[in-house]
Amino acid sequence: MEWPVLLMNIGKESEREPFSPRAGPPVYKETTVNEIPRNIPSIDKLGGAIDSFLELSRRINEGQPQKYWYPLSMPTYGTEEVLQALDSLCSFQTTMGEKTLEFEKRFADHQKSGAAVMVNSGSSADLLMCHLLVDPIQPLLAPGSEVLAPVVTWPTQLWSVMMAGLKLKLVDVDPETLNIDLADLEGSITPNTKALFLVHLMGNPCPMDRIQEIAKKHGLIIIEDCCEALDSTYGGVKVGNFGLCGSYSFFFSHHMTTMEGGMVVCHDEELADRLKMLRAHGWLRNVDNSKFPLDSYNVDPRYAFVDWGLNVRPTELQAGFGLCQLEKLPGFNQRRKLLAERFFTALDRNQYLSFPNVDPKADPCWFALPIMLKTDVPFTRRDITNYLESQGIETRPVVAGNIARHPVARLFPEFKTRTFQGADKIHENGFYMGLSPLFSEGMIDRLLEILQTYLNRFS
Ligand SMILES: Cc1ncc(COP(=O)(O)O)c(C=O)c1O
Fold first, then answer.
1. Tens digits of residue pLDDT in 110-139
2. pTM of the prediction?
3. For 25-141, where are the E strands, in sequence order?
4. What is the CA(306)–ligand 1 centre distance, in A?
């Protein structure tokens, strides 16, 4: 079955590829995660009803004029995820519980990490990692220690450093890779620099060999924001495993989704337990409590607080989504890689446009399709993105561009200390288009065709 609205404007009927999110090119398998017994007749009927609902909403959308045939993202969940969420609701198991534990375990296995701790967003995952650095139970850094982070990223990465009482020092970004500029990184290190908060932007892994060398030389702790880089590897190792801990986002447009949601991975259960206490009130619950003898305290052990903490817990509905999506993830990411390869190969050595350089040891699992205008091109970023938008292709800046150029920068001295030339280039000449495992090869080809039509104006 085709999904005509997505095929609007992407070529003659005969040239189109059939496209269906469930039966077409996407290769993920239908999942039976977590024992929702679809063979019970009533569950099966419910599943059928949800199938119909999803189909119906698709039909409703098809009936409406769509602004974009090539959007930034598409919903990747289906009946299995909705059944999981309903199962949690109908069994009154809505707050963090067994599904969360199971998802954490399976995610850590998938990631080849020692342990994983689920939270309610990628931003919360970043916040938790920074709070781990200054956790009063066992502080790794003194308050006010300097943490280096790139100026092109999602801003909550930076707010996390500041909200944990650490001193943020911004580092420039290399427009060739969209990742932290190594020369500027080394030049920014002072005796007060204690940690490095990396981001693997757009899924492009940072050059970890060199970064680990620098960190070792200066005694810096590494933490990694992998919110756009789930399943990207460097030297065969998944990003997120190179430092103290790594964060992931399961926001709807990311490699997998739990609607909202996030995860922190780390090397062992001991760190995970500290993250878990910071995740939920500083409470001695859901952790190995044998390490915290309460004999000398006159407290109810069920309500014992051993640390300070936030409340950034996920729900079971999100974890149920996660269990289903994790099974589909290998298929999703195989497709992401294939589609990105098709796009970038066609753009190789383009006269006007470039895409990020990839380190020879890196294998990116692209989050999106980022593009930079080369120097001295006869058009502006706004010209080309306006054209693409007019052709039904959604575009956006590379994450937030240079954050030091946003209005928020007026509030904080950290953003006013210097200029960032690499980040400025990305701010002015960079943009990205979506990449979804539900896109077809035909959509990528049509996208390339439209880009070429625009570029032909200048040759
Ligand atoms: C690099 C990066 N870090 C952190 C986040 C925050 O994730 P969330 O939207 O789940 O809070 C995002 C979100 O897109 C991101 O791209």
1. 999 999 999 999 999 999 999 999 999 999
2. 0.91
3. 115-119
4. 30
Q: Which helix (H) or strand (E) holds 87?
A: helix 79-90
Residues in the ligand 1 pocket, defined by CB under 6 Å = 121-123, 126, 153-154, 156-157, 199, 225, 227-228, 249, 251, 262
Options 131, 200, 254, 255, the catalytic residue: 254
Measured in degrees and rounded to the nearest 5, phi and psi for residue 360 equal -55, -25
Cα of 254 to ligand 1 centre, how many Å?
9
Rounded to 10 deg, the angle between the 441-456 and 381-390 helix axes is 130
The residue whose two tokens read 């290998």 is 330
Across 23-37, 246-260, 317-331, 370-384, least confident range: 23-37
Taking residues 92-108, report their average pLDDT: 97
Number of helices (H), then strands (E), in the chain? 13, 14
271 contacts 132 by C-beta, under 8 angstroms: yes
Could you tell me which CATH number the domain at 1-459 has? 3.40.640.10
- Residues 6 or more apart from 230 whose CB is under 8 A from it? 203, 248, 254, 255, 256, 329, 333, 365
| The Cα angle at residue 89 between residues 83 and 94, in degrees rounded to 5 | 115
Neighbour count for residue 292 (Cβ, 10 Å): 16
267 is catalytic: no
> Which are the contacts of 226, defined by CB distance < 8 A and separation ≥ 6?
200, 232, 239, 240, 246, 247, 248
Contacts of 280 (CB under 8 A, 6+ apart): 96, 286, 309, 310, 311, 312, 313
